[in-house]
Specification:
- The chain is of the alpha+beta class.
- Helix content is 50%, strand content 8%.
- The protein folds into 2 domains: 79 residues, Glutaredoxin, CATH 3.40.30; 106 residues, Glutathione S-transferase Yfyf (Class Pi), Chain A, domain 2 (Up-down Bundle).
- The chain has 9 helices and 4 strands, in the order βαβαββααααααα.
- β3 and β4 form a beta hairpin.
- α1 runs parallel beside α3 and α4 packs antiparallel against α6.
- 37% of the residues are buried.
- It catalyses: 4-maleylacetoacetate = 4-fumarylacetoacetate; RX + glutathione = an S-substituted glutathione + a halide anion + H(+).
Length: 210
C-alpha cells in the first residue's frame, strides 16, 4: 500500500492510526499542503484525487480517497482488531460520532476554508470547533466508556484525537470538555496513536518533531 499524506492533516492522521492498529505496513508519500502553493494542486496529484485533498491510499489495485471510506475498506478487508462494534446500536453510535467530527467540525476549519477567512481565521476555527465540541461532549455523556463508545477503540476515536489536536492548535479552551479531554489522553497513550502522531512523520519539520 501507498499512503499519500501530510503530517498535520487530521484526515491523514485518522488513516495512519487505522493502518497502525491493523498492523498494515505501507509506503508513505508526503504531499505538502503549503509548499509550492500546495503540492495537492499538481496535475500529478489531481489525477490521483480530483478533489486535490489528502489522504489517498493505493491498496489492492484500487485508489481510495476520503478518510472514512478508506477506514471502512480497511475494516472490511482486515477485520482485526475491529474498529466498528458488532452491536448494531453501538456501531451506529460510532458512525454518528465519526460523521459528527468528519463532516460537522473538521471541514469547517480545514486549510481551504481558513484561507478564505483571512484575518478572522483563528476566531472562525475556534467557533466551529467550540460549537462542535459542545454537542460532542453531550453525546459522549451517553456513549463513552474508556473511549468514545464503550471500552473498545473505534473509528470514532480515530476521528477524535486529530480533532482535539486541531483544537489545541487553534487555542480552544478545553476545560468545558472533560470527557473529550479524558478520552483523548487515554488514546494518546496507545502505541498506534503515538507512532501515527504528526510529530513523528517523515515529513514533519524538524522544529515540530517529538
Amino acid at each position: 500500500p501507498i499512503l499519500y499524506s501530510y503530517f498535520r492533516s487530521s484526515c491523514s492522521w485518522r488513516v495512519r492510526i487505522a493502518l497502525a492498529l491493523k498492523g498494515i505496513s505501507y509506503d508513505l508519500v508526503p504531499v505538502n499542503l503549503i509548499k509550492d502553493g500546495g503540492q495537492q494542486f499538481s496535475a500529478e496529484f489531481k489525477a490521483l484525487n480530483p478533489m486535490q485533498q489528502v489522504p489517498v491510499l493505493q491498496i489492492d489495485g484500487i485508489t481510495l480517497c476520503q478518510s472514512l471510506a478508506i477506514i471502512n475498506y480497511l475494516e472490511e478487508t482486515h477485520p482485526n482488531p475491529r474498529l466498528l462494534p458488532q452491536d448494531p446500536k453501538k456501531r451506529a453510535q460510532v458512525r454518528m460520532i465519526a460523521d459528527h467530527i468528519a463532516s460537522g467540525i473538521q471541514p469547517l476549519q480545514n486549510l481551504g476554508v481558513l484561507k478564505q477567512m483571512g484575518e478572522k481565521k483563528m476566531e472562525w476555527a475556534q467557533n466551529c470547533i467550540t460549537s462542535g465540541f459542545q454537542a460532542l461532549e453531550h453525546i459522549l455523556q451517553h456513549t463513552a466508556g474508556c473511549y468514545c463508545v464503550g471500552d473498545e477503540v473505534s473509528m470514532a476515536d480515530l476521528c477524535l484525537v486529530p480533532q482535539v489536536a486541531n483544537a489545541e492548535r487553534f487555542k480552544v479552551d478545553m476545560r468545558p470538555y472533560p470527557i473529550i479531554t479524558r478520552i483523548n489522553k487515554a488514546l494518546l497513550e496507545l502505541e498506534a496513536f503515538k507512532i501515527s502522531h504528526p510529530s513523528r512523520q517523515p515529513d514533519t519539520p524538524a522544529e515540530l518533531r517529538a
